[in-house]
Amino acid sequence: MGGLAFESQIKVFATPGSERLAQDICRSLQSRLPKKLIPYEDGKLRLGEMKLEMFSNGNPQVEVENVRDLFAVVVNTQVPPVMENFVILQLLLDALINADAADILLVFPYMTFSRSDKKNRPRISTMGHRFAHMIGNEFGIDRVLLLDPHDGHIKHYFSGKAGKAANEISAMFMLVDYLLKTFFSEEGSTNDWVVVFADTGALKNYRKIAHLLRLPTAYIDKDRPDDSEKAKVERVVGDVKDKNCLLIDDESLTGGTLVNDSEYLFAAGAKKVIAATIHAVLEKRINGGVCVPPAELVKSLEASRIEKFIFTDSIPVHHKISPEMTKFSILSIAPFLAEAIARTILGDSLTELHRLESVDLYRSY
């Protein structure tokens, strides 16, 4: 490691729903930092205290523990209720600024509004751009870490007063490492496999997965004629007949798309399908916001013909999957995020994390 980029001690905070992941990050981060950067007497890094108070007039307020002249790390991943947590994040950042934190690093394992970044039909909001602009310009935060945003261009929206883009890191190298160790560890085990991308967007963002696995590629050609979430499958481009298919997408909202895509692959002659997704949202709302229980969504995945689902916990997912369900492998993202956070604090390059061999630094399985 290089010299310290920051001499300030470190405190970690989390918005509601992100606490478990942030606690795991604290445990992984502790071994990566010099002891002098940990401010607690017992030497253990833990979550900083954040109190949320709701006044009788409905106005919320956040109070944080002492952070004067300290480096604050804020972990915020998208969990329901999304709008409420969006406001709480702003309150937390404002409280840290008012409490004279020396600097703030904002970590988005899964960024709210990351899919709302383009005006693809008239008269709609594009909060992906507006939110990032607000973080950089209104709050003046120029240290932002994004894990696999839906589109890489979103990192440039964060360039506020300092003109700095957010830093983007990807879990795809960890995913490839896991696949090599779990499915392709024996010689010849990649025979008859093909990497299938769920759409052209996944192909653009994750083509390197096929390169690292040394596998041929295919993709599912889709069209969204009305710009809705639901896409129409036009065709499977590439040879999947009598092949084992590794189906790749950056996120799974309900899991239904993965299942539907797998059926098209089976209809095209695929022998078996395993699915890998970095962000497992596994949420569905119908009839004006009524939430379908995540357990129902997961049961439908368990009952599908997909042989295995590989997710990360960039979004809390463990509580949605029963222990008896055998189709699911959840990779912990916390050591990877802790490594990236430590490198930011210690003044080391994040570029090294964009290599397969660097998974040795944070492997969690």
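The above is record 1. Record 2 follows with the same two-line structure.
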Amino acid sequence: MAAKGLVEALGNQAWLEPLANTLQQAVGTAFTAAGSNGQAVKDFLHGVWLGHPLHPALTDVPVGAWTVALALDALEGLSGRDELGPGADAAVTLGLVGAAGAAVTGLTDWHDTDDPARRVGLVHGLLNTGAALLYTASLLSRRGGNRAAGRGYAALGYAVATVSAYLGGELVFQQRIGVDHAAGVQPPADWTPVYAAPDLPSDTPRGAEVNGMQVVLVRKDTRVYALNGVCSHLGGPLAEGHVEGEGIVCPWHGSCFALDDGRVLSGPATFPEVCLETRVRDGQIEVRALQAPGDGSEA
């Protein structure tokens, strides 16, 4: 409970705002200045190509490597076996390399968050930076021949990284950063009316609800598209977004989803949207869940 109270307190720390605003603006400016290449890099770092966020996969590298280093350091210190030292040094180095990748991807993901997760995420990142600096000091001490100091810096760095890891878990499991906010929706199995066809303008999203599911409808020429209306990134209302080419853009953080199948065209979202079948009958737009090939049900 004390840890939970600490996390809530971090989310309420207004003094973090100036730093968070400055850093988010700097990250956004860097990607924007690079134009289409910047968006491509941003999508890569988010993990659009992977189908889920890249950052969590990379965090395993420093955590695993530094755990190995901690074990080898402990064995070296207790047994006096100098031959364990090179392995510990290599693990510290590998952890620093992995930490750099985790930092870049984490910063990219954090750029597209809002308070209180933004403030907690900022502290998470600062702690990870502190841990990396301690491990850098550890590596320099080891190479300078002061292995006792190197082990001390590493132990302190591991403690800081552990606290940071707890905050990372809080961001994922409690504040749902990096999870699919569109998961679990259940489109109707049968054709269900959701919107009057004459009321749906071209290239203008409109929201509807069917069986408790939010749906966004878009007409392009004579075709009507329907997707789950909740953005998979952080739950933004797609019906309040805008159509861009063959996709719909979330108004919150700019994720773009293909109208024809819900795939992610650009991040920060990494999970696709659920796509529904549509038809127009008796002046009403009807939707249903996508049918499997050869289903044989009524068209």
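The CA atoms of residues 56 and 102 lie 8 Å apart.
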